[in-house]
Amino acid sequence: MSDKRKKRKFNAKRERLRLKRLAEDGRSKNRPEIPAGAVPADLSQQVPNNSWSPPPAFYVDVLFECVDCGSEETWTGEQQKWYYEVAKGSLYATAVRCDVCRQKRSEQKGRGDPRPIKHVGSLMKRIRVAIEPSLEEAGFEFDGGNEPKVWRSAWLDYSRPGLILRCLFEPCEGRLIAETLDEATECRVVANVELNFSRSATELLERVDEFTSFICDFLQSLPAIVDSPDGSDT
Ligand SMILES: [Zn+2]
Fold first, then answer.
1. Of 109, 171, 213, 227, which is the most buried if we count CB atoms within 10 A?
2. What is the mean pLDDT of the chain?
3. How far, in Å, is the centroid of ligand 1 from the Cα of 99?
4. Which tens digits make up the pLDDT trace of 107-127?
5. Residue 125 Cα to ligand 1 middle (Å)
């Protein structure tokens, strides 16, 4: 084999290995390739715009200076994914104010918080506030959950004798799902709401409220717990 051919073969092998590594890291399922540490974008979730420049295929942390107080801030890739894909922010918009100044500004304007859901944690918190009174009434106790501050799936577990209720946020599908699991391990979907169609923060909140009202309706349809004969209630 000539040196030239050997070199070509070697290069081809190296490229194959590189692509395999990228695929394993989930950084190049389809083109384009995603840099290490970047957050892959789901183009189907971005609000379409008529810009001549292509929409971002990934998000990387960006530094910016707050226009009000001048502090140096980071707008993380995770925050950008949330902003553009879940809160349906315009692709033309970027962060210009730090959290403190944004809060101050919205209070001065007296129109409340313009971004009531800032991340998955605040989404789950909103759900908890909405469903927990009904859950308590139906005899459920909070069993645990997670409150991720970044773009991760989130869950909340509640249980009462013989029944578990789990609320899930699936970031890849952009769905809120509530399921119950009974003693016979029968699974029942109580609510399944897609957040994708929301085009504004208001519509997003409507979707979340729809999800929680499905759960509250379900809870009201449940029979009351009857104390077991031996007096145990666990
Ligand atoms: Zn500031």
1. 171
2. 85
3. 7
4. 776 555 556 677 788 889 999
5. 25
